[in-house]
């Protein structure tokens, strides 16, 4: 058997679901899995944004007729550029686009379950002929999709904060619930078959990856609901690690630091109209110069802080490593088939800061955190 680092993920996992695969980290995770021979169902709200993955990783001639795990070089993997040389060469997986919006939890779950059932063709090889009608069809589920809301907590309409918590925490937990419920049932069936037939396959490894953030430990200024969401997702992963201990299921609490992605561009900035909000709670249009001069100094200072924090946030993200860096870390964790907390990113963020936080006081941590964002 090849050493762990040289093993392909397709020797362990066959089918993966990645939410938010159109850009950034999700796209890098999908590309990494595809390069490793795993078939990927990747989602975006608009499938047109997944066209590049669909084209590059369709079930094309290089893929056809090649047994899983066979080590043949193929052009799609070689064309990946940033990934070239990062992963063992061989047959690439097949990509299937999925239109899924987390804004509607019930609909997102329905699409997720339907996709999982289709993914294994309505029948799972490892279900011993049982019909697969549920979310158990994936071996890896990566809950990655997300965005942020930036603004002064009190000055921003609470509906914005509530919405983000519903979309990113409640509805993401809903997909985790669907996947895990079916995996547990499937694992029990696999165990049962082994008890009566010793040559039956052992339960397959399956992995749930919840993309949290280092913000779960080091909250970002003016992104209150984002911090709540990420702390919640980390708590969800921690809870599930306890519940799945001793099973073939693993849970990865992935906490990236700053990465260079489209994230900062997709943030819903609500702070840019604070001057306007000072006069009118529903304001969305810029104030005239004359009225801006009427903003009291205490309010102006608050607005300045907010703008400084925004600039620092964008600068830190731009200076982060490329998303492929996180994909490599995730690949190593998936090969280990063990539940884990995975921090990744710059050394100062992913290693040094958590280490110092462990030994320092919370008050000191908060002061350093504020300085880090220039507020
Ligand atoms: N980049 C970082 O520094 C960083 C650090 C820590 C954690 N993270 C986390 O990593 C994850 C990915 O972020 P990223 O940096 O890669 O951002 P990104 O480049 O903006 O990608 C976000 C992805 O999420 C999808 N998405 C957004 N809102 C959605 C919704 N309501 N329903 C379904 N899909 C939705 C987007 O798809 P469409 O817009 O195409 O639909 C896109 O594919 C997020 O959970 C983020 O919180 C990022």
Automatic annotation (TrEMBL):
Q: One of this protein's Pfam families, by short name?
A: adh_short
Looking up InterPro entries in the UniProt record yields:
NAD(P)-bd_dom_sf (IPR036291), SDR_fam (IPR002347)
A single GO cellular-component term from the record reads:
membrane
Protein name per the record: Short-chain dehydrogenase
Tell me which PANTHER family the record gives: DEHYDROGENASE/REDUCTASE SDR FAMILY MEMBER 7B, DEHYDROGENASE_REDUCTASE SDR FAMILY MEMBER 7B
The entry's family comment says: Belongs to the short-chain dehydrogenases/reductases (SDR) family.
Domain of life from the UniProt record: Bacteria
Its lineage opens with: Bacteria, Pseudomonadati, Verrucomicrobiota, Opitutia, Opitutales
Sorted UniProt keywords:
Oxidoreductase
Q: Which GO terms describe its molecular function?
A: oxidoreductase activity
Record keywords: Oxidoreductase included? yes
Question: What species was this sequence derived from?
Answer: Cephaloticoccus primus
